[in-house]
Design brief:
Layout (H helix, E strand, L loop, with lengths): L3 H18 L5 H9 L4 H6 L1 H16 L3 H10 L2 H10 L15 E4 L9 H16 L3 E6 L9 H13 L6 E4 L4 H13 L3 E4 L3 H10 L10 H13 L8 E4 L14 E5 L13 E3 L1 H11 L4 E5 L6 H10 L6 E5 L2 E4 L5 H11 L11 H6 L4 H11 L6 E4 H15 L3 E2 L1 E2 L2 E7 L11 E5 L7 E4 L3 E6 L2 E6 L15 E7 L7 E7 H6 L5 E4 L3 E7 L4 E6 L1
Helix pairs in contact: 1-2, 1-4, 1-5, 2-4, 7-16, 12-13, 16-17
The protein binds zinc ion.
The site of zinc ion has 5 residues, from loops.
Length: 539
């Protein structure tokens, strides 16, 4: 059986085609289109049942009058989807947009190298500011001393700079700690926050049972006194926290008195041991957004449940809350994009953050992806409230197209070169070459073309020249008079490097950071000429 979501995907396909082509649809065709959609995995579970269901859906939509097709087409946002494809990155309509007055911010946590997901969120906020002649802020959300690491601040900035993002301002949440403390004290005075000394287990149970704890009845003076002790380091981690007094009976878990300040006495990358209590996301994010005049922000849908709490904090502190749009995940098929997974791989495998097998911006850069390809990829991903899927290979094809415009050199390359004699009894070749190298795998008895040499047929360890004029359909294969053995780093955890051989003469003309096509291998970037190291990009 197909889930409601998959049924919806299929219905949308039929409605789209019926509306755009103005004709009834064929179940067979819809089935094929559905197999290229996010419903594929479910269809594969039971092909026969899915086919029957798809036929039912197609017949149903086919029976609708055109007016209903059109109204469903519009109601389901399929029209916007069509326009979005045409104009690439289209932003949703937000309120309070004043040209020149828009301020957006992107708040990375300096806990990892930026990957494609960061690039997406950062670019969206940046482009929105620029489209509206506004200001763009990069703000490090570094209020967890256990995660913020010196190296990562720089790695994040390097990544965004490489993408061509120019922030008007770079700020640090850890510079706002005194302000955050004073706002928290204001919340305590307003009786909107209290110090809770319950242990984690008790708090968890109380949340589950929707029960208030006794700490909620502390007087303002008691709360201030306990908060001072938290601040000065007299209280240890886990012994006390500050919670908002919202509503323990709320059906929404986020509203049941969330923690906004925790003790963490570990030294911080920027402030050392100056601060001993650190704010939770909802508190610091709200205060700094409001204080720095952020008017609009795009963030991932996972933050949506916090919005009501953040709005309350802003209201209590007398701030106007920015317009925030939460976008849905864009799932990358065929690549790894999760920051958490990346960190696991880096921490467990002793890998560098720029290992070619990862999808950090640093590793994509090493592999010869151009920043423009990533920007185009983000355009293609679009912004939506509904989850979507994009193939990793789309990024590769964008990069391939951009590299083609640059006319990167094609260089002969071999996995296992063999020496070969050249036989040209009729003297067809312009340049007389008597021997050289081909790849051992080159098929015998079949005609190929070698640049600068001509058309050839291999016969064991001899190449017979058959002509010099190009013939349509002949595959160009590698040949070199002399080869150079080089190291090729692969985006592959199992086979991280290969030894290959490339044309010696061509290699001598290259310089560091050149991107080339290695024949039969793909696009590669020369990382270090001295050590003869290339990094594989893609086919
Ligand atoms: Zn308590």
């Amino acid at each position: 059986m197909l889930s409601n979501e998959s049924r919806n995907v299929i219905e949308n396909i039929v409605i789209k085609y019926r509306n755009n082509l103005k004709e009834k649809q064929d179940p067979e065709k819809v089935f094929k289109v559905a197999m290229g959609s996010e419903a594929k995995a479910e269809i594969l579970k039971d092909m026969q049942a899915s086919k029957t269901l798809i036929t039912e859906i197609v017949n149903d939509v086919n029976s609708w009058p055109e007016a209903k097709v059109l109204s469903e087409f519009e109601k389901r946002g399929l029209k916007e989807e069509k326009e979005k494809r045409k104009k690439t990155l289209v932003f949703p309509k937000l309120e309070n947009v004043v040209d020149g007055k828009v301020v957006t911010a992107y708040p990375p946590e300096p806990s990892k190298y930026p990957h494609i997901g960061h690039a997406y969120a950062c670019l969206i906020n940046y482009l929105y500011a620029k489209q509206n002649n506004g200001k763009f802020i990069i703000r490090f959300e570094d209020t967890n001393p256990d995660l913020a690491k010196k190296d990562y601040y720089k790695a994040q900035l390097d990544g965004y700079e490489w993408l061509g993002i120019k922030a008007d301002q770079v700020i640090y949440a850890s510079d706002y700690m005194d302000l955050i403390y004073s706002k928290l004290e204001k919340l305590i005075e307003l009786r909107k926050a209290y110090v809770c000394t319950c242990d984690a287990e008790t708090t968890r149970k109380n949340r589950e049972l929707k029960q208030e704890c006794d700490c909620r009845s502390h007087s303002v003076e008691q709360n201030i006194k306990m908060w001072q002790d938290m601040k000065s380091g007299k209280v240890n981690k886990g012994e006390a926290s500050v919670r908002l007094a919202i509503d323990m009976r709320s059906p929404q878990g986020e509203m049941r008195d969330p923690v906004v300040m925790r003790i963490n006495q570990n030294p911080h990358a920027r402030t050392g041991t100056k601060y001993k209590a650190w704010p939770a996301y909802i508190l610091q994010n709200t205060i700094i957004d409001c204080e720095t005049g952020v008017t609009h922000r795009f963030r991932s849908k996972e933050f949506e449940p916090f919005k009501p709490v953040q709005k309350l904090i802003a209201k209590w502190l007398g701030y106007s809350f920015p317009q925030i749009f939460e976008f849905a995940r864009v799932n990358l098929v065929g690549g790894q994009a999760s920051g958490r997974k990346l960190r696991e791989q880096v921490e467990s495998g002793g890998l560098g953050w720029d290992n070619p097998a990862l999808t950090t911006l640093a590793s994509l850069r090493r592999r010869g992806f151009l920043p423009e390809s990533i920007r185009e990829f983000v355009d293609k991903m679009g912004i939506s409230k509904t989850e979507s899927t994009i193939e990793w290979s789309v990024l590769e094809s964008m990069n391939r197209k951009l590299l083609a415009q640059r006319d990167v050199p094609k260089i002969s390359a071999f996995e296992s070169p063999v020496k070969i004699k050249i036989s040209d009894p009729n003297g067809l070749m312009k340049e007389k070459i008597s021997e050289g190298y081909i790849d051992e795998s080159l098929e015998s008895g079949k005609e190929f073309r070698i640049k600068h040499l001509g058309n050839i047929v291999r016969e064991k360890n001899i190449l017979n020249v058959t002509g010099t004029d190009p013939k349509p359909g002949l595959t160009i294969v590698s040949f070199s008079k002399a080869t150079e053995d080089v190291k090729l780093l692969m985006p592959d955890f199992d086979e991280p490097e290969k030894k290959i051989f490339i044309d010696k003469d061509e290699f001598s003309k290259l310089k560091d950071e050149d991107i080339v096509t290695l024949q039969g291998i793909g696009f590669c970037r020369l990382e270090n000429k001295k050590d003869k190291v290339f990094v594989f990009g893609h086919k």
